[in-house]
Amino acid sequence: MSSLYAVGSGLDIPTLVSQLVTADRTPAENRINTQGKAATAQLSALGTIKSAMSNLQSSLSGLSTALTTPAFKPTVASDAGFTASTTSSAAAGSYDIEVISLAKGNKLTSSAFASDELVGSGSLQLSFGDSHLEVTVAADMTLSSLAREINRVAGGKGVTASVITSDTGQHLVLNAVGTGSNGAVTLSSSGNGRLAELSWDGSTGGMTENIAASDAQVRIDGQLRTNTSNTFTDLVEGATITLTKTTVGTTGNLSIAADNSGAKTSMQAFVSVYNATLNALKSASSYNADTKTASALTGDSMVRGLQNQLRSIMGNNNVSDLKALGVSVGKDGTLSFDASSFEKGMAEQPAMAARVLGKDGSIASSLDSLLKSNLDTGTGVLVQRTNSLNKQISKLEKDLDDLDVRMEKNYERYTKQFTAMDTLVAQMQNTSNYLTTQLANLSSSSSKK
């Protein structure tokens, strides 16, 4: 570095060059950084707005679904002998149900075999419902190996086999997988050994029916209904009723009523998210008069337009309908929610909620269109604005890189220029020193004469 210091001029060339480069850099760098800071702030503010509106879109979808799809709640006493659940196709009503019998699958047990006794060779034919299985019985099979083979062939459908051990020996046990008379297990055999004992035709055979197959029976409002399963899916439209115990001579009540709890929760959530969206727009475009500080999007026409459109959709001719649903619109455009008024409105005018905020409701349709026009990944205003800012920031970053390259070249150019100047000054100084010396010598020679 010392070699760059001027010999002839006495200038500190590195420092001077650095100062000149800094003077060249500062205006452009400040301009780029200022633009970058503003663009980054706008991008952050747009991200907040976009997030808020995405949340509003999700909340609106949930609310519209809740208001368009009716919900019902079944009420059943704990000792009624059945449980119930409902779908949106149910209707309010009350039903008295007596559980006469439960559906059961049959169970068959063979006579006793010794633990290592061979069953015989041949085949077993098992039937349940409309299905039939054939199990090959090898000559070396015991009851345990036969049970495993039955389970392998059946694959868990229709029948399961197991072996129990009593005081008299081992017994093959067959359990029907399904319930009701249609799923009862029967079997026959062909072969030698004791295979003939493994039979049951539904009434007689070599096996004992410990539990007979039976259908479920209920009496609903005095009407008898039989079912092969303990679960009734069409006993009451829109309700699934599962029997748990018999209640012969006693009825249990099933009461189905409209359930607005989910819709109420969704409405409360929508109001909160809507207000959060308005606050996000306000915060991004506010101006602090006391500190004279503007926000990232102060005066932005897009933000003002969104604020006005949201307030217009929730205002205008919709105020009275919203109020009937417990939603009030404040002077600043924010919403407030009264749960009691909502429940009252749903009870008195259940169809109005869907008409206003359901999937095809007047407010929901307008609000959904506004949100889609701003959030669509291809054409959304917010998305395009965000993409534009990202491109601007990328260009500013490239401008800084280009500025660095230019300043490096400026540094080299200034250094060469000042070094050349210093060399010239040194040469001139050497010439001056030479001439001064020659003149001094000449003057000395003259004086001696």
TrEMBL record:
The protein's job, in short, is: Required for morphogenesis and for the elongation of the flagellar filament by facilitating polymerization of the flagellin monomers at the tip of growing filament. Forms a capping structure, which prevents flagellin subunits (transported through the central channel of the flagellum) from leaking out without polymerization at the distal end.
Is Transferase tagged as a keyword? no
Alphabetic keyword roster: Bacterial flagellum, Cell projection, Cilium, Coiled coil, Flagellum, Secreted
Q: What is its main location?
A: secreted
Which PANTHER family would you find in this protein's record? Answer: FLAGELLAR CAP/ASSEMBLY PROTEIN FLID (PTHR30288), FLAGELLAR HOOK-ASSOCIATED PROTEIN 2 (PTHR30288:SF0)
**Is Coiled coil given among the entry's keywords?**
yes
Q: Which residues form the Flagellar hook-associated protein 2 N-terminal domain?
A: 9-104
List where this protein forms a coiled coil.
386-413
- Flagellar hook-associated protein 2 C-terminal domain location: 213-430
InterPro entries, sorted: Flagellin_hook_IN_motif, FliD, FliD_C, FliD_N
Q: This chain belongs to which protein, by name? A: Flagellar hook-associated protein 2
Quaternary context: Homopentamer.
As for family, the record states: Belongs to the FliD family.
Q: Name one GO cellular component term.
A: bacterial-type flagellum filament cap
Q: Where in the cell is it found?
A: Secreted; Bacterial flagellum
The record's Gene Ontology biological-process terms are: bacterial-type flagellum-dependent cell motility; cell adhesion
